[in-house]
Amino acid sequence: MTKTSPAPDQLRPAGRATRAAIEAAARVLFADRGFEGASVRAIAAEAGVDPALVIRHFGSKEALFLRTVDTSLGIGSVIEGPLETVGRRLVAYFLDPALPGLRKRFVALAQAAHHDQVREEMVRHTAETYVAPLVPRLTGEHRELRAALAVAQLAGLLNLLFVQEDPIVSGADPETVIAIYGDAIQRLLTPESAA
Amino acid sequence: MTKTSPAPDQLRPAGRATRAAIEAAARVLFADRGFEGASVRAIAAEAGVDPALVIRHFGSKEALFLRTVDTSLGIGSVIEGPLETVGRRLVAYFLDPALPGLRKRFVALAQAAHHDQVREEMVRHTAETYVAPLVPRLTGEHRELRAALAVAQLAGLLNLLFVQEDPIVSGADPETVIAIYGDAIQRLLTPESAA
DNA sequence: GTCTATAACCAGATAGAC
DNA sequence: GTCTATCTGGTTATAGAC
After folding, report:
1. Residues A16-50: pLDDT tens digits?
2. What is the pTM of this model?
3. Residue with smallest Cα–C1' gap to D10
């Protein structure tokens, strides 16, 4: 097993600075080039340190990724809004071109999802951040399942949009996509409010 | 640029045999270990040839992947069935544990989707095999968009199920998932037949 | 010419000695 | 903290065998 990296507080000033530099570089490069595209060497170079130090501090590339990349994509506030309109608001949030780096961060996450450690953390995080807050607000049967499926459905759109870059959806009128797909998600969450 | 590999018909017997051996090995290993997990070297070893030959014959690992892995997951016949029940039938198809290798093939595809050549081919193939046959059978507005979104929604489930291996959905009663999610897909395709 | 094999190159992740 | 070494992986150069 990998030796656990020292906790930040035990490090001397130089160590803390190095660690911070690596984290900053990793944040930039992972977002910019994705998980595979950002090499440990490149991150080290960007931070001005030796590649081996990266591993020494964080244990592995995977662990570094988990420490630096925000696995939530910032939709917490969207989910907390009015339940009756959450479907459309979620879709609208991701179709908003004013959110720079969102695409790249999603792609980085999707790539990294194939690594066990990252995948497990993502599942845990999704359950905790997306599904759990929704469940108590739902009514009817299979509340947890429906919340999980709604999140999955949203992920399907993001995949089409950001990974596949499908021309049909990318080229469609955003309002139309929001209406059609948003309502579809909404019906999973609040079936009784069907239009 | 890479020199184009020779067309199969121009090869001499020895070449054709080698090519076939590589293809067979690639099919097995890609399905078994995914795109990243199956190294060119491992494929070559399995085929009993030199790694360099793999590239010589197929140009690149990506190209080999495209030649050997079935990008359709065999849902053609499902889509061709009755339109009014296609949503549930699609979900049921993928929840059927009797289809061995389905999960692994999907994971391999998902991994390889991050490579440009493969991604483009997948988009093209999806449009041609899934979306195109559906569109003329739909009625109402935004038929192409709705078909694309339905496919995306299905992909979301597959991702949750096969990549994330989410315990909520994996542990849920298949019939319930089929009903809830299948109907959600169905409503994108035939909104008028809402239950 | 058309294969095939050997070696080599370059990049990546990580372990271990200092 | 740093550097070097090792291992694995994709790919290319090149020269020999058919």
Report:
1. 889 999 999 999 999 999 999 999 999 999 999 99
2. 0.91
3. B40
| CB-based contact A83:A191 (threshold 8 Å) | no
Backbone torsions φ then ψ of B140, nearest 5 degrees = 95, -165
| Burial of residue A177, with CB atoms counted within 10 A of its CB: 0-12 exposed, 13-18 middle, 19 or more buried | buried
Give start and end residues of each alpha helix (H) in A59-142. 61-68, 76-80, 86-95, 102-112, 116-126, 132-134
The label of the residue with tokens 């298949």 reads: B174
Same domain, B115 and B175: yes
Q: Collect all residues of chain B within an 8 Å Cβ-Cβ radius of residue A187.
A: 184, 187
CATH number of the domain to which B40 belongs: 1.10.10.60
In a domain, A109, yes or no: yes
Residue appearing with tokens 């080290």:
A44
pLDDT in tens, A152-178: 999 999 999 999 999 999 999 999 999
| Terminal C-alpha separation, chain B | 55
Q: Which of B57, B68, B73 is nearest to B19 (CA)?
A: B57
* Chain B hits for A160, Cβ within 8 Å: 148-149, 151-152, 155
